[in-house]
Amino acid sequence: MLAGALGAGTAAVLLPACSGGGTAPEEAKQASAERRLRARSAEDSRTLLRRYDATAEAHPGLAALLAPLRAETERHARAFEDGAGPGSGAASPDGPSAPARDGGPATTAPGPGPGADGGAPDVPGDEKAALEALAGAERRAADTRTGALTGASPELARLLASVAACGAAHAYLLTEAS
């Protein structure tokens, strides 16, 4: 009788370990996808920063207008990077991110986009057109982040939604200023 009780007790302890909720490989896959999404989002913010810098350099008269929006975008990049964890491929505060380690794409949807050569973005010569181009980049980044909400954890979804809303506000302000 004691042997039967021990056998049932052992089975009750081992059974949950062999079945049920998330398995280690599933959890690792989900964590990897989240790190890639954070890294892509950080890189999108870094790309926007390059666009803000190029616009301010091409049109020094816009630098004061762009400074607070650029500062917010810098904070967005850091927020995505801070949660990315070690080995995530997220950008450092001083440069762009590395490609995903699993060979996945660097981005899954069009983001703010660098210049045609992959470096500094092209800035229109006219200030109004430059602001409109920057507003368009902010809208594309916001749309990309909104589209990524469904695959994100609750914490990351909140961050994506907040940054997307801020990007939409930036786009509005830039459009109004143009």
Account of the 3D structure:
The protein has 178 residues and is an all-alpha fold. It has five helices and no strands. It has helices at residues 2-18, 24-58, 63-82, 127-147, 154-177. Helix 2 (24-58) runs antiparallel to helix 4. It is elongated, with a radius of gyration of 22 Å. The termini are far apart. The model is unreliable at 8-20 and 85-111 (pLDDT under 50).
The profile of the biggest β sheet is: none
Q: Beta-sheet strand percentage?
A: under 5%
Our Rg estimate from Cα atoms comes to: 22 Å
Distance between the termini: 84 Å
Helical fraction equals: 55-70%
Order of helices and strands: HHHHH
Oligomer: single chain
Question: How many E strands?
Answer: 0
Mean pLDDT: 78
The SS-based structural class is mainly alpha
Shape, please? Answer: elongated
Individual helix count:
5
Low-confidence segments, ≥5 residues, pLDDT <50?
8-20, 85-111
Considering the chains and any ligands shown, give keywords for the structure.
178 residues, 66% helix, mainly alpha, 0% strand
Topology of helices and strands:
Blueprint: H1 2-18, H2 24-58, H3 63-82, H4 127-147, H5 154-177
Helix pairs in contact: 2-3, 2-4, 3-5, 4-5
Sum this structure up briefly:
The chain has 178 residues and is mainly α.
